[in-house]
Every structure is written in C-alpha cells, then in structure tokens.
Amino acid sequence: KLPGNRNTLAKYGGQHTVTAMPGDGIGPEMIGHIKKIFKYCNAPINFEEVQMTSIYQDGDMEEVIYAIERNGVAIKGNIETKFDDPAFVSRNVELRRRLDLWANVLHCVTIPTVPTRHKDIDIVLIRENTEGEYSGLEHESIPGVVESIKIVTQEKIERIARFAYEYAVLNGRKKVTAVHKANIQKLGDGLFLQIAKDMAKEYPTVEFDQMIVDNASMQLVSRPQQFDVMLMPNLYGNIISNIACGLVGGPGLVSGMNFGDVHAVFETGTRNTGTGLVGKDIANPTAFIRAGVDMLRYVGCHKHADLISDALWEALTEQGVHTGDIGGSAKTSELVERTLRNIERMMPRLD
Ligand code: ADP
Ligand code: MG
User: Fold this and answer.
1) Distance between CA atoms of 60 and 24, rounded to whole angstroms?
2) How far apart are CA 332 and CA 325, in angstroms?
3) Tens digit of pLDDT for each residue in 203-245?
4) Residue among 248, 271, 277 whose CB has most ligand 1 atoms within 8 A, to mutate
5) Distance from the CA of 119 to the center of ligand 2, in angstroms?
6) Beta pairing class for 264-268 and 255-259
7) Is 138 helix (H, G, I), strand (E, B) or coil?
8) Are 65 and 98 in contact (CB under 8 A)?
9) How far, in Å, CA of 44 to CA of 56, rounded?
10) What is the whole-number distance in angstroms between the Cα of residue 285 and the centre of ligand 2?
11) ipTM score of the complex?
C-alpha cells in the first residue's frame, strides 16, 4: 500500500498502457521474459516500448519522458553510465530528476531456500531519490581542487520523511530508522535528522530510531533483523540498499520502485546492467519479474500480481530452481518456464 493519490493511469479498452524501457545489458532479455509471463496469464497490460541506452540519440530522453508522462507508469532496465567521461551525466539520474521520481522503495526479504548468512530479514528501504550528492553540481575551481556540492532542502526531506511514516502506518510497520551522518555533516544531515525526528511525533504508533550511517552499515551486516523501515538521504540510501540486497541474495532478486507525485517507474533494486551476463541465459530474472509484479499491484491488477508472485515463489522455494548467482545451475529460461508451468496450474484462481 502506498501513500498519496496516484490515479493518472492510461487505460483504454480495459488495458493499462505501460511504458517499457529495456535499457542496456540484460534489460532487453528481462523485459522479454516479463512480457511472456504477462501474456501467458492474460494480464491486461499493453506495453509501449521506448528505447533509451547509453548511446545518446538526439531527443530520446524527451521521447521517454513524454511516454512516461502519458502512461504514468514505466518498467525499465538500467542504462549504463560511463564514468571515465565527466561530460556523461547518468541518464538514469537525469530521468529520475526530470520526472521528479523522489521516492525510491525497496523491500528486502529473505527467501527461505536462497543461501544467506542471515535469516528472517524483512526491511523496507526508503531513499530520497533526487537531491543530496546527486545534485550533479561539481566543478574544478582551480586545477587540483574540486567542489562537489551536496544540496538538501527542507521541502524534499519533508516529503520523503512523510512518505516513510505514511508507508509504515499503511503497511503495519512498527519502526522507522533514519540513517544519517549528522555528527559530521551537521547542517545538511542535521536538517534531515531534525525533520525526521520532529515528524515522528505525528505518528505515535510508529517507533522512531536514528542511526549514523557507518554504524547502520555494521548493524546491517551483523544483526539485520533489528531493522524495519529505513529512511535515508540519497547516497547513504544507495549504499545501504545495496548492502541490504546483498544480504538477501544479491542483485538478481530484489525489485525497486520509484515514485513521484504522479508517476511511477519500476526496475531492479540495485539498478545493475549485468553486461557480463548478456545473451548467456544465466541472469537471475527474479528482480525483474518482481518489478513486473510491483507494477501490476500499482495499476490495481492484484490477482495477476499474486498469481505471478506465488508462481515464482514456488519455483524458487519448493521447486528450488536457482540460477548461478544464488548457488544453483538453472538457466534463466528454466526459472521462467517453471514459473509459467506454476501459473498454468494456478490459473483457475483468476476465474
Ligand atoms: P556489469 O555491468 O559489469 O555486469 P553490474 O554493475 O551491472 O556489472 O552488476 C554487478 C554484478 O551483479 C555483476 O557481477 C553482475 O554479473 C551481477 N548481476 C547483475 N544483475 C544480475 C542478475 N540479474 N542475475 C545475476 N547476477 C547479476
Ligand atoms: Mg553495469
């Protein structure tokens, strides 16, 4: 359940239109699997595909933005960011900023048969997705001196903090932990912490906790079960989210959701491209399929979402179909096929 009111969804003839942006790396293969699964269970989704990759094409960003503004919803693969070229601004970051997709939400849960160091992890990670270190303001003032500017605003901290508390209340969560470095970044992170703390008073049913990001990292890898909802500014949120994904089995398992006031973009939690896995049929499709399930829930197709989610869960757990990243030897297509067989058996539920 999500805070806010998001009803600007394109729906014609009983079909939801959703923008699909395959991106780079394994994205196109994964979008292909999602389409196959959706089609198999007659999910009422009509994909409108738009291309945007790391190879810059004049006007492609505009085309993607128009498509997402029109449909309200998108599912995307990640776009490769070259970091040896200072002029190349991450197109993923640009897209999030242009659409003002200010909330990033990941749900990290252990899957019983996936080998992990810790059991019973269930953490919701809520990350401010537009400002802070990602403001994109850097310059070399004189040779050898670089200013990299982190900007935070009361307005944006308030909206992400509000989102976290509302999310906690709507989903029966008990605690929100604000992650910061206010001992060093006294003004910037100090403001973040102060706002989170003050707002907590409006939510008496949710316990407030705060933790410095270094300690939060250590606590996560040693005793992750203590965390419930984590509220984080942009960069710490990125790092902490990756730690949490690693704890539950890695980049192939967790999906990620991005919300603005009116738009939503679904992708994988760790936003990898998996370039080394392309064309080998070995990538774990779970993260992408879960992104598809999140998207179905978002547009209100709960029965289809539950069907696909349960079919995938059974394939991963009872049937133990594991790809290489989680210690198995199954191919991507074997997990997809097994999921389809499970869907076939569970299909009568839709009637
Ligand atoms: P690269 O672009 O070099 O492949 P990424 O940053 O995209 O690296 O991914 C980080 C690591 O996670 C890589 O080792 C990659 O193979 C792995 N990875 C990413 N996505 C998946 C996936 N869906 N299944 C299995 N492994 C994955
Ligand atoms: Mg990559």
Assistant:
1) 14
2) 11
3) 999 999 999 999 999 999 999 999 999 999 999 999 999 999 9
4) 277
5) 28
6) antiparallel
7) strand
8) yes
9) 32
10) 16
11) 0.95
CA dist list (Å): 293 to 58, 188, 190: 32, 36, 37
Nearest to 10 by CA among 71, 55, 68, 51: 71
β-pair partners for 16 = 11, 45
Q: Ligand 1 centre from 251 Cα, in Å? A: 7
Cα 74 to averaged position of ligand 2 atoms, centre (Å) = 21
Which of 279, 281, 256, 291 is closest to 335 using CA atoms?
A: 281
- C-alpha 57/C-alpha 60 separation (Å) is 6
Confidence grade of residue 329 (pLDDT, cut at 50, 70, 90): very high
Q: Write down the pLDDT at residue 176.
A: 98
For residue 346, CA distances in Å to 50, 78, 307 come to 32, 32, 7
Span from the CA of 301 to the centroid of ligand 1 (angstroms): 30
CB 346 within 8 A of CB 310: yes
- Ligand minimally distant from the alpha carbon of residue 285: 1
- Enumerate the β-bridge partners of residue 176: 208, 229
229, two tokens: 């909802």
Whole-number Å distance between alpha carbons of 77 and 294:
15
Closest ligand to the CA of 278: 1
Nearest CA to ligand 1 atom 11: 274
Predicted TM-score of the model (pTM): 0.96
Percent of the chain with pLDDT over 70: 99
- Residue carrying structure tokens 């945007």: 52
Closest ligand 1 atom to Cα of 80: 2
Cβ of residue 269 lying under 6 Å from some atom of ligand 1: no
